[in-house]
Each structure stands twice: as C-alpha cells, then as structure tokens.
Design goal:
Helices cover 40% and strands 15% of the residues. It is of the alpha/beta class and 179 residues long.
Length: 179
C-alpha cells in the first residue's frame, strides 16, 4: 500500500491578514512555526519515506520543519501556488471565489491560472510520484489550490459537481491510502 500525506503550508503574516500570496515568497510567522511543530509529531509517528514540496519559502519551511532530519526533501515546481494574476497581493475578500473555483467555468481572466491547468500539473505530478514510490509513505507539502486539486484527484471526485470547495486551512493534513 502507498500512503500519501497532503499538507498545506503553515501560516504566514499574509494568511493572517487575508492577503493573496500566489508567487510572493513569504516566510512562516511564529504561529505557523508552532503549528508545524505540532504536526511534526503526527508525521514522525506515521513515518515518511520521501517529501515533495513547492519551492516557495512557506512550503519549504513547513517541509523542513516536519521531516528535514527524517527523509529526503525534493522541490517540484508543479507544486507551486496557483498563479493569481492581478489578484496577487490583494485582499482575499476582493477575489470572486465562486467564479475562480468553478471547474466548469474554468476562468482564466485577469491572469488567474485556470483550474484545468492546476489539474493537469497535479495529475502529472501524482502519476509520476506514485509510480516512482510504490509502497512508500509520501509527504506532499504545497498550497491551497494544488492541495485541493490533489485531494479531488486522489479521491476521484467529480470536479464539475464538487467545485473544489472544502476547507484547507494552514497546516491542513490529510492521510490517503492507495491500494
């Protein structure tokens, strides 16, 4: 059996302030570091053979805090945060969540990365990583958009019905066993 652990990066000041980060390379805040320390206990007790992470600081710091002394950590650009185009650096309340999380609409205006593109890069990543790491415990540290998408890919949900709307707080953790 292969086991996948999905983890969203821990908290940054931008998260606390409700600012869209996208490609902004922000660091974890004190609360974020503390949340990683708590989650580390769970990850270490479950075991981990390899960790894949987004190369952005907030994800790297989360990954290193969780398993730096336990397993190899590999950066992968396919795990980068969703490109939020003109919304990067703006308040999250100004972003039309219903429009940009509707898989059927697949909107890409204002430079926002289309959901179909996130799906394609996450599916390619998962296919490759699962094939390469059969029977292993795989930790994946990424961002809200890719974590949501990988959750749906691994659970084989109907994206057109689910609309990708479920809560993915900072330091979100999900364990998925794959036969």
């Amino acid at each position: 059996m292969t086991t996948v652990y999905l983890v969203r990066h821990s908290e940054t000041d931008f998260n606390r302030q409700g600012i869209i980060q996208s490609s902004k390379n922000t660091h974890l805040n004190t609360n974020g570091v503390n949340k990683v320390k708590v989650l580390r206990e769970t990850i270490v007790s479950l075991g981990c053979d390899i960790c894949y992470t987004s190369p952005l600081f907030r994800a790297l710091e989360t990954a290193f805090g969780l398993v730096a002394d336990k397993c190899l950590i590999v950066n992968d650009n396919r795990l980068l945060d969703r490109d939020m185009g003109e919304y990067e650096g703006t308040p999250s309340k100004d972003f039309d969540h219903e429009k940009y999380w509707d898989y059927s609409l697949d909107s890409g205006d204002k430079g926002v990365e289309k959901l179909s593109h996130i799906y394609d890069r996450c599916k390619e990543f998962l296919d490759e990583v699962l094939e390469k790491n059969k029977g292993k415990k795989i930790l994946i540290v990424s961002h809200n958009g890719p974590i949501r998408m990988m959750h749906h890919i691994l659970h084989n949900t109907d994206l057109k019905k689910e609309k990708l709307r479920f809560d993915v707080p900072n330091c979100y953790f999900e364990k998925i066993d794959i036969e």
